[in-house]
Design goal:
Layout: H1 6-37, H2 45-80, H3 96-101, H4 109-119
Helix pairs in contact: 1-2
């Protein structure tokens, strides 16, 4: 499979940039919502339990955003090292269409399936 062209690489870099911008905007919105929802209010035990559950959910969402930002940073590092678009497992090129859909992909589809089967989670 051919390596990525410069035009394709530039297109994917723009996708990474826009994805990062979107995620940072979502994190900012989540932080604002968190600041509003964590204001102490008088309430009963059920209200406090609900606030605790909401806080844990907000924390999970922010953790997800941080993981996505780390994936974007890793993809940029692979671009800088001229290793972007190369499967970490088999060393073959990752198809451009896969990278367009999932610009932080580290593996080709067959290797990703094997990885998920072995480790049970997408990464």
């Amino acid at each position: 499979m051919p390596a990525l062209t410069l035009e394709q690489l530039n297109t994917l870099a723009v996708l990474l940039d826009s994805r990062e911008e979107r995620i940072r905007g979502q994190m900012d919105a989540a932080n604002v919502a968190r600041a509003v929802s964590t204001r102490p209010e008088a309430g009963d035990v059920a209200d406090l339990a609900e606030q605790g559950a909401e806080q844990r959910m907000d924390d999970a969402v922010v953790d997800h955003y941080r993981a996505e930002l780390a994936d974007i940073a890793a993809a940029r590092a692979r671009i800088a090292q001229q290793a972007y678009g190369i499967c970490l497992d088999c060393g073959e090129s990752i198809p451009y269409l896969r990278l367009q859909a999932y610009p932080t992909a580290e593996r080709c589809m067959p290797c990703q399936r094997r990885h998920e089967h072995t480790f049970g989670a997408a990464s």
